[in-house]
Write a structure and sequence with these properties.
about 300 residues, Carbohydrate ABC transporter membrane protein 2 (CUT1 family), transmembrane, about 70% helix, cell membrane, flat, MetI-like, 14 helices
Length: about 300
């Protein structure tokens, strides 16, 4: 009996001995990865922490030759004083309306374009998709001048005639702030990738039930696109909220200023009010942080699914 059980015990203990080096290697890899991720997180968070700490320092402390990281006196009054320097509530409202407008247009038109490129077979579909990919490679600032000319010479707007002459077109209007940034090639590309990853059997079953193309898009596929909608919506809102150059070019009226342009009031030729500038910048980042916290789960899931096909 003892001779029969001895080989069996040897067979059971052998795999345990072989897995020890592998477990040690896996633990080392995990620790190294966590250390790298922690260092990367600290590097990402440090500018945000520095901005908040700087917003709570006095101008005299900021001018010290040997400044400290934390303020000796926490100047919480910098925030209400920064809000009094300019009509920031109006700037916040304008930025919010523009960002909501861009997000709504992008989600509606971008999802339709992405669905068409992913699910509808038509001649030239691949050529059009390659065109969108080519647009992704064009630097944003090279499109500023053509867009400005289109806005300025928009026919029948702002006193322009049918040929776009004689007036200001869309300059200093909400049209110039919302329409040119309403849809981007990157949003169409992301939506196309998401629609491609969904199973074709859903579409075939919907057609057998008699649904037309728009109802298949709206009632069958789009409800399954929550991660994509959250990802594209958050990216669009963030890009629109942080936009500085385009609102500065197309508006001169103070009633149409946005928050990023309004922060320039703290930067003068002679000096810069760093404490007020950092206080205003901190307030300007609050909406984006709140939005990201609510959409974080869908945002990460959306980026993970975007590279499936």
């Amino acid at each position: 009996m003892s001779a029969a059980t001895a080989p069996a015990q040897t067979e059971k203990t052998t795999p345990v001995v072989m897995t020890k080096p592998r477990s040690k290697t896996r633990l080392t890899t995990s620790l190294t990865l966590n250390v790298v991720l922690i260092l990367g997180s600290v590097l990402m968070v440090m500018p945000f922490v520095w901005m908040i700490v700087t917003s709570l320092k006095s101008p005299a402390e900021l001018a010290l030759a040997d400044p400290t990281f934390f303020p000796s006196t926490w100047e919480w009054s910098n925030y209400p004083e920064a809000m009094k320097a300019a009509p920031f509530l109006l700037y916040f409202k304008n930025s919010f309306l523009i960002a909501i407008g861009h997000t709504a247009i992008t989600l509606a038109l971008g999802s339709m374009a992405g669905y068409s490129l992913a699910r509808l077979p038509f001649r030239g579909r691949e050529v059009i998709f390659m065109g969108f990919l080519a647009m992704l490679m064009i630097p944003t600032y090279t499109k500023i001048v053509p867009q400005f000319l289109l806005v300025k010479f928009m026919p029948l707007f702002g006193g322009n005639d049918i040929f776009g002459q004689g007036g200001s077109g869309w300059l200093n209007t909400w049209w110039a702030l919302i329409i040119p940034g309403g849809l981007t090639a990157s949003s169409v590309f992301l939506f196309r990738q998401f629609y491609t990853s969904l199973p074709k059997e859903l579409e075939e079953a919907a057609r057998l039930d008699g649904l037309n193309e728009f109802r298949i898009y709206l009632q069958i596929y789009t409800p399954l696109m929550k991660p994509a909608l959250a990802t594209v919506g958050l990216l669009t809102f963030q890009e629109s909220w942080n936009n500085f150059l385009w609102p500065l070019l197309v508006t001169t009226s103070d009633s149409l200023r946005v928050i990023q342009v309004g922060l320039a009031v703290f930067r003068q030729l002679e000096s810069t009010s760093w404490s007020f500038l950092m206080a205003g910048t901190t307030l300007a980042t609050v909406p984006m942080v709140i939005l990201f916290l609510f959409c974080q789960r869908y945002f990460v899931q959306g980026f993970a699914n975007a590279g499936i096909k």
